[in-house]
Specification:
By secondary structure, the chain is mainly beta. The protein has 5 helices and 40 strands. It has a 26-stranded mixed β-sheet that branches. The protein has a 5-stranded mixed β-sheet with strand order 8-13-14-11-12. Strands 3-2-5-6 form a 4-stranded antiparallel β-sheet, with no helix packed on it. The longest helix is centred in the first third of the chain and has 15 residues.
Length: about 675
């Protein structure tokens, strides 16, 4: 029986199969041979120059430039590639800290395994660095106005462990700190000197006092000028304290100073803290090579005992926080922006405590001091333009320990402090300075020009309670009452411009020439201050230098002077032995007078009340000789004469007792200073 199946297209399928067999027939022997040939193996060994195996090396196997496989060497420094088709391969190895190596033209066959060894060598890192070493300025570069400079490293090594700039200043010759914490330079009051931080005026806006200064851990350099013949400095008649603060570094740095407090121990028992002043400083980059932070903060608690009073009523308590923050942003290699903020609240209980003034008689004091600055430094080719905007806010309060009247006696005072004070002051300052590139013309001229604009304000109120003066038997001798005190609110606008030239006339002579123009709005005065300084090295070795100079300096009249007519007036009554009134009540009215005329042609003023213009004429001669790097001696004579100083004088005007505030004060201050400096390393 025959079965025949007939599918459609069966002939076409049979024909296609025949053609496939015919086409594959020539290749079939080679395919079979390939599938049956053995596979090859490559072993890679890595070691150092000393022969020690290196683990963790990345080994890449490439065929005709294309990656085939990659392995990492074992602890024995080996890696094995198995089941490889014969051919010509390339091996590349790499590991961090070592040079990358490559070997090409590795013929692999199936007969024997191939072993390849690599000797790794450390990678050579090429770094470029520039070390900038600061050298001491030459006598001619210092000119006729050299300053006494203290570097941060010197301040940190001082034995008295200073916490702020004010603590450092008395260590400089010619600078004295009085018992009431006032800094005197060349014998003048604190308000007669200038105190600047990064070129910004940081004195109290209303009084000119220094107040709380920057923490020493935030300071780079401190310069004190006693004869600043440079015209860039103004609004002073005594000296200048100039402080430059630290910028954050390329690496983060942290310091914790004075962490341990001092405890009070009495009769073998712990009675709380006596002193503590921990200081924390940290700085570093917020953005590498661009944005930096520097922060210094200090908390201080001091309890000052008075040995003539009994514990625990014999201590003055001082508490303060001092914080300084600085940001530096590098916009470009020629453009730098700096911002700073200084915060300094403080409080003192029982001020001026002593045997005759126990705690109930003393006042308490509280103050808040805030200063913020923005500084822009822009290089214009070889010229430098510096712009500064500074804002300062200051507030202070003084009050007694109670409402009782104050009683003064020969054996000790009683009651409570008589005065209450509330004051707020502010200053906004704008400063522009342009330093030109050196100009070669009959020597080298270094020109600098600048302008300043400042607005200050002062408001507040003083009140007073009666004060009784008694003899040792308790009989009333005199009574002082304070009446008619009013709130005050005064403001001022100051402008200034200067130009100066540090002229290197030759290899032995340098001359500082300058002129400063100032105007203080509330006084309606315009002042011109010429200045000149000379530095001369008579010998070629420059170990001996002769300096001299002369200058006119004008003091800023504090705004507190123009609140005088708003202060409470004194009403004084004098009593006899039997309690009867022998004089008074005598009332002293506060008035402000006009300044006396002066033959000085550099002061222009209007004939108005309060047209004060205190000025100072200073000259000096100095000789200095350096024997070696370790020994230097200096002799300096200075003559300082001040005129037009504001003083208060009791007078009788048209039968009325008055306290007259006028500008007729004068002072003369000669100073001979002999200094020998010896140092060793």
């Amino acid at each position: 029986m025959n079965l025949i199946f007939n599918f459609p297209g069966s002939r076409k399928l049979l024909s296609l199969s025949c053609w496939v067999i015919i086409l594959l027939a020539p290749f079939s022997p080679s395919i079979k041979a390939s599938q049956s040939s053995p596979l090859a193996t490559v072993r890679v060994r890595t070691h150092e120059e000393a022969g020690n195996p290196v683990a963790g090396v990345l080994v890449e196997l490439k065929l005709e430039g294309s990656p085939v496989r990659s392995l990492t060497t074992s602890e024995r420094g080996e890696a094995e590639f198995a089941n490889l088709a014969p051919g010509t391969y390339e091996i590349v190895i790499s590991k961090e800290g070592f040079e990358s190596l490559k070997q090409s033209g590795i013929a692999i066959t199936a007969e024997t395994p191939v072993e390849v060894e690599f000797t790794l060598v450390p990678k050579i890192e090429v770094k470029e660095s520039i070390n900038v070493n600061e050298s001491a300025p030459t006598p001619l570069e210092q000119g006729g106005s050299p300053s006494t400079e203290l570097q941060r490293t010197q301040v940190k090594n001082l034995p008295n462990r200073p916490t702020e700039v004010i603590d450092v200043l008395p260590l400089i010759p010619g600078v004295v700190r009085t018992p009431d914490d006032e800094i005197r330079i060349s014998g003048s009051s604190e308000h007669s000197s200038a105190f600047i931080v990064n070129s910004a005026d940081v004195t109290e806006p209303a009084t000119g006092r220094f107040g709380v200064s920057v923490p020493v851990d935030s300071v780079e350099t401190i310069n004190v000028f006693k004869t600043p013949y440079l015209a860039q400095y103004g609004r002073f008649t005594a000296g200048v304290v100039s402080v430059e603060t630290r910028r954050g570094g390329e690496k983060w740095h942290f310091e914790f100073n004075d962490p341990l407090p001092e405890f009070r121990i009495r009769s073998g028992h712990l009675r709380g803290l006596r002193d503590t002043s921990p200081r924390i400083t940290f700085n570093g980059p917020l953005i590498a090579n661009r944005f930096y932070l520097s922060q210094g903060i200090e908390y201080a608690l001091h309890k000052l005992p008075v040995r003539t009073l009994s514990f625990p009523f014999n201590e003055t308590k001082q508490e303060s926080t001092n914080s300084f923050t600085q940001f530096d942003y590098i916009l470009s290699p020629t453009h730098l922006l700096t911002g700073t903020f200084h915060l300094a609240p403080r409080r003192t209980n029982y001020v001026n405590l002593e045997f005759f003034n126990p705690q109930p008689v003393t006042p308490s004091f509280r103050a808040h001091d805030y200063t913020g600055t923005i500084i822009e430094r822009l290089s214009l080719g070889s010229d430098l333009l510096e712009s500064l905007l500074a804002i300062k806010r200051y507030s202070a309060n003084v009050w007694g320990q109670g409402p009782e009247e104050m009683v003064l006696t020969p054996t000790g005072n009683r009651g409570n402090y008589f005065s209450q004070q509330d004051r707020q002051a502010s200053r906004v300052e704008w400063l522009e300075t342009l330093s030109l590139r050196p100009i070669s013309h009959y020597g080298t001229h270094n020109l600098k020009f600048g302008s300043t604009l400042a607005r200050t304000a002062n408001r507040g109120e003083f009140t007073g309670s009666p004060v009784d003066i008694q003899d040792s038997q308790g009989r009333l001798l005199k009574r002082i009452e304070f009446v008619n005190g009013k709130p005050f609110d005064r403001s001022d606008l100051e402008m200034g411009f200067f130009g100066q030239d540090h002229w290197l006339m030759g290899p032995k002579v340098a001359l500082d020439l300058g002129m400063r123009f100032e105007r203080q709005g509330i006084t309606e005065t315009f002042r011109i201050g010429p200045r000149i300084g000379l530095a001369w090295t008579p010998f070629s070795h420059q170990q001996t230098v002769i300096r001299s100079g002369f200058g006119l300096f004008y003091d800023r009249v504090p705004l507190s002077v123009y609140a005088f007519d708003r202060y409470p007036e004194q009403l004084i009554t004098t009593y006899g032995a039997n309690g009867e009134i022998v004089d008074g009540p005598r009332r002293f009215i506060n008035i402000t007078d006009r300044a006396e005329g002066t033959p000085l042609p550099f002061i222009l003023r209007k004939n108005i009340i309060g047209n004060f213009a205190p000025y100072n004429a200073t000259w000096n001669v100095e000789a200095e000789h350096t024997f070696s790097h370790s020994l230097r001696i200096r002799a300096n004579y200075l003559q300082s004469n001040s005129y037009g100083m504001v003083i208060v004088t009791p007078k009788v005007v048209q039968g009325q007792d008055v306290l007259v505030q006028g500008g007729g004060g004068r002072s003369r201050y000669p100073q001979l200073e002999l200094t020998a400096r010896f140092s060793w390393k």
